[in-house]
Write a structure and sequence with these properties.
It is built from ten helices and 13 strands. By secondary structure, it is α/β, with parallel strands linked by helices. Helix 1 crosses helix 10, helix 3 packs parallel to helix 4 and helix 6 packs parallel to helix 7. Bound molecules: adenosine-5'-triphosphate and iron/sulfur cluster. It is found in: Cytoplasm.
């Protein structure tokens, strides 16, 4: 059966492009995984699939198995020091022959691809399948909603009775500016029309976090997403500032956050270490091997817990 083993489906939607939807999808996935949940990311941004680049696995290829396409593993589950659920992803980017190949498809071809992604991928036991969508409400969204409403249900009791995935809801990503929030209202409207519950709004790029002290200053504006959520009567999940660390984490250029960030480097008890400096070896391993603890931005832990809490509270008794 399509989506066999998937328990919850969460859509990540944005009205405008470039507001950080794919980055938010990845960070939510990492945060859910760090809560011990097994997670899949399905990237249906067919014309601009960015998940393969964000997980540092651009050269990975999809394999076929008797049960369907196997998604690409980002990391496996661990139960040791840092318990973590497995993370897999699927994207058109893995199927393109060349990274730079342009995808110029008409609606029916996009619809067919989305159908295939939803019916032919063998996710295995997956607590949360996050779907990264293109911006706006395009052919992809309509195809996705039509398919999901036949393969899953937003009704928790019905999902449990029929062993169907639960269409848990959508997370809306916006920046604080009015031009972005007015577009995200259309996404909220799309959810109402398609009976997809809204889990909440994340206001990304909300203020600027100083790279030295972390102080967040509102260079442009902040709070537009929160006001919009209040006006629409939908939950507000929280804000994420423009943070160099966030950008570098999702683009995989830096060490993950750790508690020892303030440790002194190079000196101990006032005595300089006399270590021979070795030239750094190029490290071409996939990001997941370089950063086994994951590259999760701390603020997302709260978002992940809210989503898990919502699922538990609204579970069919
Ligand atoms: N809070 C943030 N702080 C710093 N950089 C960010 C933040 N959010 C996103 N970015 C950066 O902004 C760029 C665009 O992000 P992303 O690709 O996630 O946007 P998107 O909405 O998915 O775009 P598209 O519409 O093209 O799919 C990326 O380089 C990402 O690293
Ligand atoms: S934001 Fe304030 S504390 Fe941080 S570096 Fe700038 S001036 Fe210094």
């Amino acid at each position: 059966m399509p989506l066999d083993g998937v328990k919850n489906i969460v859509l990540v939607l944005s009205g405008k492009g470039g507001v950080g939807k794919s980055s938010v999808t990845l960070q939510l996935a990492l945060a859910l995984s760090l809560q011990g949940k097994s997670v899949g990311i399905l990237d249906i941004d067919l014309t601009g699939p960015s998940i393969p680049r964000l997980v540092g696995l651009e050269d990975a290829k999809i394999t076929q198995s008797p049960s369907g396409w196997l998604p690409v593993p980002v990391h496996n589950a661990t139960s040791s020091d840092t318990p973590r659920g497995a993370l897999h992803c699927m994207s058109l980017g893995f199927l393109l022959r060349d990274r730079g190949d342009a995808v110029i498809w008409r609606g029916p071809k996009k619809t067919a691809m989305i159908r295939q992604f939803l019916s032919d991928v063998s996710w295995g036991q997956t607590d949360y399948l996050l779907i990264d969508t293109p911006p706006g409400t395009s052919d992809e969204h309509i195809a996705l909603a039509e398919q999901l409403l036949t393969l899953s249900t937003a009704d928790a009791a019905l999902a449990a009775q029929n062993n169907l995935p639960r269409l848990t809801g959508a997370v809306l990503v916006t920046t604080p500016q009015a031009v972005a929030t007015s577009d995200v209202r259309k996404e909220a409207n799309f959810c109402v029309k398609t009976s997809i519950p809204v889990l909440g709004v994340i206001e990304n790029m909300s203020g600027y976090a100083c790279p030295c002290c972390g102080e967040v200053s509102n260079l442009f504006s902040s709070g537009g997403g929160e006001v919009m959520a209040q006006q629409l009567g939908i939950p507000f999940l929280g804000k994420v500032p423009v943070d160099v660390k966030f950008g570098e984490l999702v683009e995989g250029k830096m060490e993950p956050f750790s508690d020892d960030e303030d440790e002194e480097e190079g000196e101990s008890d006032g005595v300089a270490k006399q270590e021979e400096v070795q030239p750094a070896e190029p490290d071409d391993r996939p990001l997941v091997e370089k950063y086994p603890e994951g590259w999760s931005y701390p603020r997302f832990e709260g978002f992940a817990k809210t989503i898990i809490g919502h699922v538990q509270q609204t579970a069919a008794s």
